[in-house]
Amino acid sequence: MIAAVSGFLADAGRNIVDADQHSSREGRFFMRMAFDPAPEGEREAFYRRFEEEIAGPLRMEYRFAESSERKRVAIMVSREDHCLSDLLWRWRSGELGAELVAVISNHADHADQVASLGLPYHHVPVGDDREAAEAHVLERLGEIDLLVLARYMQILSADFLRRVGSPAINIHHSFLPAFVGADPYARAHERGVKLIGATAHYVTEDLDAGPIIDQDVTRVSHRDEVDDLVRIGRDIERLVLARAVKAHLDDRVLLDGDRTIVF
């Protein structure tokens, strides 16, 4: 398969810039190749030839992604702003390589910060009628390529996830499932944990059970109080979420059932 794809690109005069591959124990083969694009007027014919000559005969699941096309990203957030602020900085500095189209929150706390960057900020409270709130959110999202839950502390319904029309990435502390619910850091401190961390994953109908994209941990000790754990945990959450978002935007994440292959 590597030879077939590489040969096709060589025959088409396309230079391979980067290549990764992985074979799973179950016998599935994954490959990601970055190559110089075909001239714009020749791309449809190029894609059609690949389907006819390579993908069809080899029964490949594949897709082409144009790195020059900036993906449309929206962020949802509640009161904690550490992940939001980090993503806003990365977007403003050009590090994300995406078009940030809106920030939506069930609180009004971050309106000034977001407005100062010239971005739309939508305050959509979530009361007793979650269905109505989700409908309002969908209206404000429009067409997006990725939804990032940057510490959005509301559960999204299965219907919302189906209708949003894009993948969603969430971040949570890695105490789950041992320290679920309120005040996880306080209860972790009571148990004397020695490692804390964070997990970024795709959002599915099963709460906090979607395919994991990125994780990280750091050591803590008996000297760290609850406030220290919270501060350290926020730093890890920022980094892990940013890495997961960037990997998705760079088309480096391939799904293998409930797992991910991240090149």
The total of helices stands at: 8
Number of DSSP E strands: 11
- Cα distance, first to last residue? 18 Å
Query: Looking at the structure, what is the overall shape?
Result: globular
Which residues sit in consecutive blocks of at least 5 with pLDDT less than 50? none
pLDDT averaged over residues: 95
Main sheet?
7 strands, mixed
Binned strand content: 15-25%
Q: Structural class of the secondary structure composition? A: alpha/beta
Bin the helical content: 25-40%
Account of the protein in words:
This protein is of the alpha/beta class and 263 residues long. The chain is built from 8 helices and 11 strands. Helix 3 (82-92) packs parallel to helix 8 (226-249) and helix 7 (184-191) crosses helix 8. The longest helix has 24 residues, at 226-249.
Structure at a glance:
The chain is of the alpha/beta class and 263 residues long. The protein is built from eight helices and eleven strands.
Features:
single chain, 263 residues, alpha/beta, two-stranded antiparallel sheet, globular
List the helices and strands and how they pair.
Layout lengths: L1 H10 L4 E8 L5 E7 L7 H16 L13 E6 L4 H11 L6 E7 L5 H5 L5 E3 L6 H12 L4 E4 L8 H6 L4 E6 L10 H8 L3 E8 L9 E8 L6 H24 L3 E4 L2 E4 L1
Parallel strand pairs: 3-4, 3-6, 4-5, 6-7
Antiparallel strand pairs: 1-2, 7-8, 8-9, 10-11
